[in-house]
Design goal:
The complex is a heterodimer. Chain A is α+β, with helices and mostly antiparallel strands. Chain A contains nine helices and ten strands. The longest helix of chain A has 13 residues. The chains are: A alpha+beta, B mainly alpha.
Chain lengths: 283, 249
């Protein structure tokens, strides 16, 4: 198959679902119209996932550590009405925000480059990171187009003063020095949801709404929707369908819809859909 | 000349071997000591679980409903022992009542301590083997904790390593006989570890398994067993990826 034919038929190539028998594929949808950039999702993520707060200095030297970050964009003023405020520090329309976490790519660039297979794809569509297997080559972080993988340059959690280590979440590891880490879609919550479902005699299937990620739970405007993409009636897949976003398409050909996935033209097949912010450029 | 060279190499090899042995042996002994360290006092499991046949889950009551089995609070000990005057004056019980009167917990040392990155769920195993399959409690708990009814204080007798876990889970992955809604598609389910008669099984099962020691099966036997599986299942068996995130966190 020539390269051009391969590129033309890329979407068909993508349609192979290696995990079609799996009842679950986790996905997310984030409505940027609703996002106010308040940062509660970031705080919730820190609390839930034992993420160390590294401080301003370490962030400045490239040792930042936040599984979920709020990216802030300032719009260039456009149109006549904006001309007089072009020079101002705070353009009238203000910033707009995009929460950015691991997109759990189905064709993840981080996975094939790991020399020890510490990152791999789980059957339920997560991009897993096995901390005890990671040797800290940081190749995955280099290869990630979203730059959402973070490396433990230090043993941050050893500095916690005594009673405060009780705040750590026992459901997941406290990562140590030399280990790569990233958003897991709160896999400990997914695991306990499956556990609860198994108690009721259902294996594998988790009812829609039975599990929330920490960021979703804390979002005051409910901009984040999380759920099972293989369940047609779940909130998240209804959101994907209504905005005409499909998983195995590397470009969403919909001019009128707001749905898109970041960097989908790279064919990485992210599981997170964003809904573009609508603005009144006339005002 | 040649003979001299050989013997030098041989001696060097012996030296290396001895050195290596010298390093490995004390380390092994040390590792064993950590898991079997001294406890505040010798709790006689043999008397409670062995002689009086108290169900494991009477004291370790978390096992059936949570990830951790749990150590009973002092109140649970006192609840029975305040009504057993015959042993009230024995040294261990005196010590127990000292803790009770001082309102202190007994500082037990953790014996079966898995690394932080390992997720083990007691509930799933207990619900499956005891409540669903109807195995005896002591047999089920004994798979990982050894024959506790003969112990005094708890000891770590099984390795509790990943390979040891997999030696059980790997044999049973594949088809399932317990009426799952999704047939034959699940991985890592210890499907065959039931007491159901073999004739009802859809495919030949391993001769499971001396239940007390599920990990004792030889590799050659596992291979023989997997060769008997139906072809479709065998392919699945071979290709089935292990989902690390089921047990690692």
């Amino acid at each position: 198959m020539s390269l051009s034919r391969m590129l033309e038929n890329w979407s068909d190539l993508n349609k192979q679902d290696y995990y079609e028998d799996e009842p679950i594929m986790w996905g997310m949808s984030i409505d940027l119209n609703k996002c106010t950039g308040c940062g509660s999702c970031v705080t919730a993520c820190y609390a839930e996932n034992n993420i160390p707060t590294v401080g301003k200095e370490k962030c400045g030297s490239g040792h930042s550590m936040h599984w979920l970050r709020i990216e802030r964009y300032w719009d260039e003023p456009e149109g006549e009405a904006d001309l007089d405020i072009k020079e101002s520090e705070y353009p009238e329309r203000g910033a707009h925000f995009a929460p950015m976490m691991c997109q759990q790519c189905n064709h993840a660039p981080c996975e094939p480059v790991c020399p020890v297979a510490a990152t791999y794809h789980t059957p339920d569509g997560l991009n897993a990171q096995v901390y005890n297997r990671c040797i800290g080559s940081r190749y995955c972080g280099t290869n990630c187009p979203y730059k959402v993988r973070y490396f433990n340059f230090f043993d941050f959690q050893e500095d916690i003063p005594h009673p405060l280590e009780m705040l750590l979440n026992p459901d997941l590891t406290v990562r140590s020095k030399g280990v790569m880490e990233k958003c897991t879609f709160c896999v400990q919550r997914l695991r306990s949801a499956k556990d609860a479902a198994a108690d009721e005699g259902v294996r594998g299937h988790v009812a829609d709404g039975a599990v929330q990620t920490a960021c979703q739970q804390s979002c005051p405007t409910e901009a984040i929707v999380f759920g099972n993409l293989k369940d047609d009636k779940s909130k998240v897949s209804e959101s994907w369908q209504s905005h005409n976003v499909e998983l195995d398409r590397h470009e969403q050909f919909n001019e009128d819809e707001r749905g898109y996935r970041i960097f989908e033209e790279l064919n990485v097949e992210p599981s997170v859909m964003y809904l573009d912010r609508v603005r009144n450029t006339e005002a | 000349m040649r003979r001299v060279k050989t013997s030098w190499a041989l001696n060097f090899g012996k030296l290396l071997f001895l050195l290596a042995l010298g390093f490995v042996l004390p380390l092994g002994a040390w590792a064993d000591d950590v898991s079997n360290q001294e406890q505040p006092f010798d709790f006689p499991h043999a008397r409670h679980a062995g002689k009086f046949k108290i169900n494991c889950m009477y004291c370790h009551s978390g096992a059936r409903r949570s990830k951790v089995a749990g150590i009973p609070p002092v109140a649970k000990c006192i609840g029975c022992h305040s009504n057993i005057p015959s042993v009230r004056e024995t040294p261990r019980i005196k010590k127990l009542f000292t803790y009770w009167e001082n309102k202190e917990p007994i500082p037990w040392r953790k014996v079966h301590d898995l690394p932080d990155f390992v997720e083990f769920n007691h509930k799933r195993h207990v619900q499956r083997f005891i409540f669903k399959d109807g195995r005896s409690t002591q047999q089920t708990c004994g798979m990982c904790h050894g024959d506790v009814k003969t112990f005094s204080v708890g000891r770590k007798v099984k390795p509790l390593t990943m390979g040891w876990c997999l030696s059980c889970h790997e044999q049973f992955q594949g088809d399932s006989d317990i009426g799952l809604p999704t047939p034959a598609k699940r991985w890592m389910i210890p499907a065959a570890a039931t007491d159901k008669p073999l004739v009802e099984m859809k495919h030949p099962q391993p001769a499971v398994m001396d239940a007390e020691h599920p990990a004792t099966m030889k590799a050659s036997e596992i291979k023989k067993m997997s060769n008997q599986l139906p072809k479709a299942l065998k392919e699945k068996f071979v290709r089935a990826p292990h989902d690390c995130w089921q047990c690692h966190k």
